[in-house]
């Protein structure tokens, strides 16, 4: 697969089960390429967000799906993880709460620490959590 600069968004949909987190990482790795300077951070954050979807979203129900979209631009990488909206919204909890039983909050703490920007959007029964990492 050749490296194209500023390729358009590429999406893949996975079953929202823990076993698919690795497949989502593999997909993201194929899109951005192993030599990308942000590859490690992108793969870490994809793992965290897909894991959050599997554990906390409406997609965690049987048959649920999560869609990962990766866009490699000339100056940034943007990743979106869309799932069926659950009862909760993605919340960045205070670091002090991230210990103990609040294990689920660790992922967004990493996103906040590593990403240049991140956020989420809701609509049409879906929640899309996204992040951007600078660097080409």
Short description:
With 136 residues, the chain is α+β, with helices and mostly antiparallel strands.
List the helices and strands and how they pair.
Layout: E1 10-15, H1 21-32, H2 39-56, E2 65-72, E3 76-84, H3 106-114, E4 117-123, E5 126-134
Antiparallel strand pairs: 1-2, 2-3, 3-5, 4-5
Helix pairs in contact: 1-2, 2-3
- Give the number of domains: 1
Q: Based on Cα principal axes, name the global outline.
A: globular
What percentage of residues falls in helices of 4 or more residues? Answer: 25-40%
Mean pLDDT: 83
Our estimate of the beta-strand percent is: 25-35%
With helices defined by DSSP (H or I, 4 residues minimum), what is the helix count? Answer: 3
Q: What is the ordering of alpha helices and beta strands?
A: EHHEEHEE
Largest sheet: number of strands, sense, barrel closure: 5 strands, antiparallel
Q: Helix- and strand-based class? A: alpha+beta
Low-pLDDT stretches are 94-104
Q: For the CA atoms, what is the radius of gyration?
A: 14 Å
What is the name of the CATH architecture?
Answer: 2-Layer Sandwich
CATH topology: Heat Shock Protein 90
Strand line-up across the major sheet: 1-2-3-5-4
The CATH class is Alpha Beta
Please tally the β strands and state the result.
5
Query: Termini separation (Å)?
Result: 18 Å
CATH superfamily: Histidine kinase-like ATPase, C-terminal domain
């Amino acid at each position: 697969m050749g490296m194209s600069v500023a390729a358009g968004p590429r999406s893949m949909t996975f079953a929202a089960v823990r076993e698919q987190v690795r497949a989502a990482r593999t997909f993201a790795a194929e899109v951005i390429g192993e030599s990308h300077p942000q590859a490690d951070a992108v793969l870490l954050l994809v793992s965290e967000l897909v894991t959050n979807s599997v554990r906390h979203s409406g997609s965690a129900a049987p048959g649920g799906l999560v869609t990962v979209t990766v866009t490699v631009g000339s100056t940034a990488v943007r990743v979106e993880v869309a799932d069926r909206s659950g009862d909760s919204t993605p919340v960045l909890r205070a670091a002090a709460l991230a210990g103990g039983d609040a294990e689920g909050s660790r992922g967004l703490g990493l996103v906040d620490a590593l990403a240049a920007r991140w956020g989420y959007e809701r609509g049409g029964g879906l929640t899309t959590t996204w992040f951007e990492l600078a660097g080409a």
